[in-house]
Amino acid sequence: MTDSPDLHPKKLSIMEKLVGDEKTHSLENRVFNLISLLVIFIVASTAVLNFFLGNPVREIMLSAISAIAALVFYVASIRYYYDRYLRTPIVVFFLIILSVAWLTNQGLQGNTPLFFIILFTASTILLRFPYNALWLSLSFIVVLLLLTTEWAKPELILPYLSESHRQIDVSVSIILSLIFNAAMVHLVVKEYQKERLRSEKLYQQTLHDKETLQQALANIKVLEGILPVCSFCKKIRDENNEWHAVEDYISSHSKAAFSHSYCPECAQKHFPDYYDK
């Protein structure tokens, strides 16, 4: 039996090194790492954009804090496999960050609704049913509360420095949102396809091992049941009603071999002179 090609060492690509080797990281862990990397890219890009636009320090700080938090989540997942404990915290963290950003980025007129779409997509993938459905419902309630606050207390919503700042920020955010969602769907589907192919190979290998085992068992001959034996000569009758010596029958129906000798009683009976000496 030859080893499966997947069992041999291979050179990992940069993405596999960042996300985690599929032989040591589970599918859920790799998906979490992918989403964390994309979040780091998005919020880091937003921080750079805010800096070059000359936006208030609070905007730069929100983006920087988000990038650092996403990096911490990523490191904890890829090094310590804590992704199962980090799924809900990362979603809660970014829901809080986006709620604050809604108030500081001109609300519905700013770029925050675009990032809420990213959060909805990521949380649907990260959280398992029924928690993802419950979380989406909670997120929608938060958005409705923010919209209500913006309508009832517009003075709580902080505007951009200028209309041009808003347009640039929203335009770049649209591009980042499209990139994130497209990349996330592509990479996650790719990981699921890899896992499906790996499962198919394991299934085929299992079938092969099963066939090999069945063939080996078929070659093993076991004597069982009632054997008809002659009361006088001790020959054994086979399924074709033919009589065979005990040695011949057992040798043909099992892997046993015979080495002839004689017991003390037969020695005295057949060789009395030699035995008496």
Radius of gyration: 37 Å
User: Roughly how many Å apart are the termini?
Assistant: 60 Å
Give the neighbour order of strands across the main sheet.
1-2
Which whole number gives the mean pLDDT?
A: 84
Count of β-strands: 2
What count of structural domains?
Answer: 2
| Estimated helix fraction | 55-70%
Task: Label the overall shape.
Answer: rod-shaped
Structural class based on helices, strands and sheet pairing? mainly alpha
Strand content: under 5%
Low-confidence stretches: 1-10
Number of helices: 10
| Largest sheet, strands/sense/barrel | 2 strands, antiparallel
Order of helices and strands: HHHHHHHEEHHH
Can you describe this structure?
- This protein is an all-alpha fold and 277 residues long.
- The chain has 2 domains: 188 residues, no CATH class; 41 residues, no CATH class.
- Helix content is 69%, strand content 1%.
- It contains 10 helices and 2 strands; from the N terminus they run αααααααββααα.
- The chain has a two-stranded antiparallel ribbon with strand order 1-2.
- Strand 1 and strand 2 form a beta hairpin.
- Helix 2 runs antiparallel to helix 3, helix 4 packs antiparallel against helix 5 and helix 5 packs parallel to helix 7.
- The radius of gyration is 37 Å and the shape is rod-shaped.
- It starts with 13 loop residues before the first helix and ends with a helix.
- The N terminus is likely disordered.
